[in-house]
Amino acid sequence: MNTEIIIGEDRTGKPIRIDMEELLATRLLVQGNSGSGKSHLLRRLLEESADMVQQVIIDPEGDFTSLADLFPHIVIDGSAHSVGEIEALARRVREHRASVVLALEGLDVEQQIRCAAQFIAALFDAPREHWFPALVVVDEAQMFAPAVSGEISEETRRLSLNAMTNLMCRGRKRGLAGIVATQRLAKLAKNVAAEASNFLMGRTFLDIDMIRAADLLGMERRQAEQIRDLERGSFLGLGPAITRRPLSIRVGSTRTGAKTNSSGLMPLPTAKPDEMEALLHAELEEAAAPAVERPLPPPPPEPISRNMEILDEPAPSELAEMPGNKGPSQQDIAAEVLAKMASDPSSPFQSSSQLFQSFQMQCRAAGAFASGIDMEQFRRRFSIAIAGLERLEERHRETALGMAANVESDILAPYLVIIRSALEGRTAPDQDELAAAYGTSSPGRIRRLLDHLESLGLIVIREEYGGGRTLMVPGIEEASA
């Protein structure tokens, strides 16, 4: 079986090969500044060896998910799974020899690091009967094996560094061949970088990185300057799987592409300065307000015949003077109209002004010509109505209203839904119910809403990197979301 792949060509056009069987035993380190072609190099290597060896890619930016379009790679969305599920998936990946891309772009940095660490650790801890050969490619490795602690917690750093060290130092006996790629050698833990015997060094500009790269390539420090002059897509290679002496390699083309925006130039807009200024400032107050879904079109106007009937109806003073008038009061009618509007699933998706206008019209049509409710009172009462507090016991309803007394009306409804869920003893507010109360169908807007509520001190959020959340309302037992 031929175990070599062509990674590119040298300056004379001669093909440069990498022995994949040797690479499995000796590991690979890739360095290159942003824009040097590092991800392109990894993609070329993965594409050319896809039919030779199992591949596991730790992908923090979603650059390699397009491999699944052409090759039998399975994309695992790290944000869609819990800790236990991630570990179970890693064990099954080893058992079934599946090539996968662990996509982490949906998580924040610390969650990415913890998710990758748990996944790599589970690969490493697989039973002996599942120790099949596999490439484990870790892009942006300085995140997962940092030389010094940064903004992440020390616990997360130790967890990730331990997983990466096991991969590079002890993974070979378990069939795992680490390929780590980094923008900065100086930011990568030395015990991780030192375990690689093959190197592909791309363009870098900082002296400390050039010197370390030259040392690894066995070059004199005065020769390190040539690393700064490398073209994009060119690398200096060295190692038993590549070449015995440093060699300049121009990486070949790839069949798949990154699903990211291109960094190339494109024509600028042709709008005039005054037109652009108008575009930037148009409806700025609405854009700065908390995000809500685009409201539905206003309800169609009532027919003229009905409008004429309303005009002919008696005034409130005349209505009160009518003998035998024992019908519902103005407030009762207003409350009934409000409840009816709250029961309409489309109501939360309309703007407050449209709702208030519709409320007034329906009140007049029902005989309540003076409900005594202004715009702000309507917004708060409507929020309370759609939150479903009538399901609670009286004492719990009073507790909820007391806790929300000073909460702004635009976030009152979803906050009351969270409180009601906790008071009912449920594990979490239903996601659809929370979205409906806020008038949105966007999960991203719900996440931003929860973050905003936490910033106000109204709730406390504990996040799991698998996408789950634990919501706690101060003073009420915690509920998981």
TrEMBL record:
SMART domains: AAA (SM00382)
Domain AAA+ ATPase positions: 24-214
InterPro entries: AAA+_ATPase, HerA-like, HerA_central, P-loop_NTPase
Domain of life, per lineage: Bacteria
Name of the protein this chain belongs to: DUF87 domain-containing protein
Native organism: Pontixanthobacter luteolus
